[in-house]
Design goal:
The complex is a heterodimer of chains A (333) and B (413). With 333 residues, chain A is mainly β. Chain A is 9% helix and 50% strand. The chains are: A mainly beta (333), B mainly alpha (413). Chain B: It holds the Pfam family MFS_1.
Chain lengths: 333, 413
């Protein structure tokens, strides 16, 4: 009996050591897999600013500068990308205000920094919120910053995801941590449900009217909101991640075709007519208006990572690859 | 209190003369260790999965949320299958081991699935199937390895160890991320190694309770159905399901806390840890209390604690410490119900049908809780959050009162 027990303990020790050793070898290899050279030409140590005519984005090319904020001239996007020190998972800019969502690298469950930046990319405000970065935008007047984070199900040890959308008023500096409590009307009736999620906010140039997606019970609605009076109403269904055009009259969005497949489209708010864009691949991003006729977006690559593409906003033409190995485009106008 | 019975454990004679952990059977401690290590592994994945899906693969995690409800339903059926197969073949350890093994292999599956949504969904489903398969045989093993008089303590020790693992999982995942310079694959691989260690521990240190051939021959589907003709067992199953139907889910409790109490969003992820922490602390004391004063009584008291937590949360908001009390009550609810129900049911079931019977109770409860979350969602839509919580608390307390009057625990376990 005693001998058998010793044998078992010995077996256990050997087994545990072997498995722990395998894990250590894997971790060490993963660490060494970081080659230390960038896969694309990168100009490092740059002092990035929000100067007009530049395209800023998250550099996703493999290498030491992966994940950092990068900048290229919008006119010559294939120029070597300049990077600074700032790491952002999502980035957006408007009227001299920038926002950077950066997940803390080794904190679990995920925690993200919401960093509000001035035109020299100096930190004006920083707040840590639970969740994984999904969307970020700045209102056209630069007075509001808003974002969406994915949060793990609020239940312990259970899977399931939801989104949490928040707004920060740059002046006077008020944080609305989540807009889930926005009183909202769907088809004229006050809508309440346990599973209400919002994602993708976009503000009009007046800094009061805004649009967002409400997801609940397997359906999505385009919500038009009034920020001062703080309420919202549904305009139509199946409109996700709205992005308002510079003139405030059209909305670029992703329209769900089937589970996990979205098509970029533009909705005319006056006529409520939808125009599918020339991009036929599935796009899961909040579109960005480069100007009143061009849409930019990140497109996931089948092998992982993403590229930045552009496509005309009127449904004509064809998609054009703007920057390979990039995500979260932002244009300084 | 201490009555030696014919089905006492191998260590029964030594029980109660040794301190703390040593008072439960070595097999229960071994199973607790297996659960602890397995929970480290699974919570590592749970913690890193959203980051991996969103930042690693560029996927939209909401796609997986939709599948979640379907899996929960499938798990209920798998649980029955696992319980019955274990009894039928007289191999509790083998079936539980298969469940643990399947979940372990799934960690490698996540590495192989790449960025395919369908493959990731399938791996997550298989992982849950493993969990469904192993639960009933494992709980049957715990109960068959324990002295029936101290079952509450045995389950308390097991659940406490299980929860320790859940606490450690995210910490281990963080360490791996830090060491591997943010490599998610390294987290999955390490998680697999940890899960494999748990399977190894199960294989080496958990002793099976094999029933004899004659007993196995009696374990048929008909015999399993016959369980429900047994009055005490039928009553406990029905009442457990009924109470499950009026119990609101964790996510709702935390939502109410977040909406009504000005909890800083930085603290949101800590709310479930608060519940788990209290569960961890109270699992053994409440299990022992259940052994002394009656398991069903403690089980009902746990539901009263939940009702009180709901009333506090939906009542007038005040200092944050009141919310902390509500969270503590929520943890006490788990400590007084999760293992205690199994401890109450165990002695009612013949050894050859132990896993089947436990699976029946667990499935009934799980299905009832699914229905309850649908009902509560409906109540929220119609009445808004606060009235819905008040109604839920009221219905829960009425149901507990009814259970107390009907006294299904008359057959003292």
């Amino acid at each position: 009996m005693g001998g058998a027990r010793v044998k078992k303990v010995l077996l256990a020790v050997v087994g545990v050591l072997a498995l722990a050793g395998a894990a250590v070898v894997f971790v060490v290899n993963a660490r060494a897999g970081d080659t230390g050279t960038n896969a694309v030409p990168v100009v490092t140590g740059q002092r990035l600013t929000l100067s007009p005519g530049r395209l800023l984005f998250r550099n996703t090319a493999a290498g030491p500068d992966s994940g950092k904020l990068a900048s290229v001239p919008l006119a010559t996007p294939d120029a070597p990308r300049q990077v600074g020190d700032l790491r952002c998972d999502r980035f957006a800019v408007a009227a001299g205000t920038g926002v950077c969502l950066a997940v803390h690298p080794d904190v679990l469950p995920a925690v993200s920094d919401v960093i509000v930046l001035d035109d020299k990319l100096g930190v004006k405000y920083k707040e840590s919120l639970p969740g994984t970065p999904s969307r970020a935008r700045v209102s056209p007047d630069g007075k509001f910053v808003y974002w969406t984070l994915f949060v793990t199900g609020d239940s312990y040890a259970a899977q399931g995801f939801s989104t949490r959308a928040g707004v920060y008023e740059v002046q006077p500096g008020t944080l609305v941590k989540t807009i889930e409590e926005l009183p909202v009307f769907v088809d004229g009736a006050r809508y309440r449900a346990a599973d209400v999620n919002y994602w993708g906010i976009t503000f009009a140039p007046d800094g009061n009217r805004f649009y967002t997606t409400l997801g609940s019970k397997g359906k999505t609605y385009l919500i038009e909101g009034d920020y001062q009076r703080f309420f919202g109403k549904s305009l139509r269904d199946n409109v996700e991640c709205p992005s308002l055009s510079p003139d405030g009259k059209r909305i670029a969005f992703k329209k769900k075709i089937s589970e996990g497949v979205w098509r970029l489209s533009v909705l005319d708010l006056a006529t409520m007519r939808e125009t599918p864009l020339a991009e036929t691949r599935s796009v899961d991003d909040q579109a960005l208006w480069q100007d009143s006729s061009t849409i930019l977006y990140g497109l996931a690559k089948p092998e992982g990572g993403s590229d930045i593409w552009s496509v005309p906003a009127d449904g004509s033409g064809a998609p054009r690859l703007l920057v390979p190995d990039g995500a979260s485009p932002a244009v300084v106008s | 209190m201490y009555i030696a019975t014919s089905r006492s454990s191998d260590l029964a004679a030594e029980v109660d003369r040794k301190p703390a952990l040593r008072r439960v059977s070595a097999n229960v401690v071994a199973l607790g260790m297996v659960s602890l290590v397995t929970d480290i592994s699974s919570e590592m994945v749970t913690a890193v999965l959203p980051l991996y899906l969103v930042l690693g693969l560029g996927l939209n995690p909401l796609q997986f949320g939709l599948l979640d409800g379907l899996y929960a339903g499938a798990t209920a059926v798998v649980r029955l299958l696992g319980g019955h197969a274990a009894d039928r073949w007289g191999r509790l350890k083998a079936v539980a081991g298969f469940g643990y093994g399947l979940s372990a292999v799934c960690k490698l599956g996540l590495l192989a699935a790449g960025s395919s949504v369908a493959a990731i969904g399938a791996v997550l489903a298989a992982d849950r199937t493993g969990k469904g398969l192993r639960t009933a045989p494992r709980d049957a093993l715990i109960s068959l390895s324990s002295d029936p008089a101290t079952l509450g303590r045995s389950f308390g020790v097991h659940r406490a160890m299980d929860t320790v693992g859940a606490f450690l999982g995210p910490l281990v995942a963080m360490a791996v991320l830090w060491l591997s310079l943010g490599n998610y694959q390294a987290v999955f691989f390490t998680s697999f190694c940890v899960a494999a260690i748990a399977v190894l521990l199960l294989g080496l240190f958990v002793r099976d309770r094999r029933s004899d051939l004659e007993q196995r021959a009696r374990t048929t589907v008909r015999a399993a159905l016959g369980l429900l003709r047994d009055a005490p067992f039928r009553r406990i199953s029905i009442w457990a399901a009924l109470l499950g139907l009026v119990t609101i889910g964790d996510s709702f409790v935390y939502l109410v806390l977040q909406r009504r109490w000005s909890v800083e969003p930085q603290l949101f992820p800590l709310l479930p840890l608060g519940t788990a922490g209290v569960f961890l602390l109270l699992a053994v004391p409440l299990g022992r209390l259940a052994d002394r004063v009656g398991r069903w009584a403690v089980f009902l008291a746990g539901h009263v604690a939940l009702g009180a937590a709901l009333l506090i949360l939906a009542g007038p908001t005040g200092g944050i410490w009141i919310a902390v009390c509500a969270l503590a009550l929520h943890g006490a609810f788990y400590a007084a119900t999760d293992g205690v129900l199994m401890a109450a049911a165990g002695p009612m079931l013949p050894a050859g049908l132990r896993a089947t019977g436990m699976a029946v109770i667990q499935t009934g409860q799980a299905v009832a809780r699914m229905a309850s979350s649908v009902l509560f969602g409906l109540a929220w839509t119609v009445w808004d959050l606060r009235p819905a919580v008040f109604v839920a608390a009221g219905v829960l307390l009425v149901a507990v009162l009814a259970a107390a009057v009907v006294k299904p625990w008359a057959v003292r376990a």
